[in-house]
Amino acid sequence: MLKRIPIYILLGFLVVYFFNLTDQTGASAYWINVGYSTLYTFFMWEGNQAVVNRLRRKYPNYGQTSQRLMAEMAWCVIYTVLAVLLLSAVLILIHGERPFTLHVLLSDFNVALKPSLVGTLVVVSINEAAYFLKQWRKTILEAEQLKRENIASQFETLKSQVNPHFLFNSLNTLITIIPEDPELAVTFVQKLSNVYRYVLQNKDRELVTLAEEMKVAEAYLFLLKTRFGENLRVNTDIPQDQLGKFIAPLTLQMLLENAIKHNVVSVEKPLHIHLYVEKDDVLVVKNNLQRKSSVPDSTQTGLTNITQRYRLLCRRAVEVIVTASNFMVVLPLLTVERSEQSYRDGL
Questions:
Q1: What is the pLDDT of residue 245?
Q2: What is the span of the domain harbouring residue 52?
């Protein structure tokens, strides 16, 4: 505030000059008017800035620009009118040369109101323009970050599938079942093809329906269950009316791959995976926790990517819950309208 005092004094001079506020002759009258103008400028600037800051905290996001701007204009004008009226009354009493009457008060109020309102509108407009530009830049950066996260997701999924271990296990399973069950082998190849095709076809999408994601998850689970048999047990409990909602693409596949990668899957310790929807519009992916003694190339890239993508898409957190016996990831289920509104409001 102290650093802005020279600005207030300069604006005080400019107000006196541009609005011709000196109605008396002599240097003393000029300096009195400069002092009054500086005082008005101080209260107009600081008061309106406080109003603007408060409204920015209430309507902080890019999607609330119109609402915030209308509120700023209305409340700043109200504050300016009341502040000018109060300052006019105080200055009449302090000056003491004129009687404190309604006529004198309204006369001084009318003189001071016009420059005060002009200054208020200029200050609000400049502040809002700067804030809008800042939020717009943030929007661009967030959109670019979301693109990078999607690319990272695609890369991570493709990397896990092109991984020699994945290909070796898939081909080894295929070789085993070809002589025993040729029809199953054909289905296995089709499911494998579906998984790869889904990754390539959805590389540019930010959201997919839960139905689409479940379809490829079922194909991926078919490959895994063909390999592990009854050692992998999967239960899905997803109501039909939830399948039209949206999630980030490749999310389920990454979580299923994560469960297989980090847990023992054996006759003695079958891995149980449960996918279900809770009433708060969330999809839960849950597995019993039976960690492998060592996991090659173990990183948290997959979970980190999912969490970051949801933060950019809808501002709703992805929950990772670890207990002594279970590992759970809770994913928000979105509607397109809610996702777009959350994204705009979050910027």
A1: 93
A2: 2-138
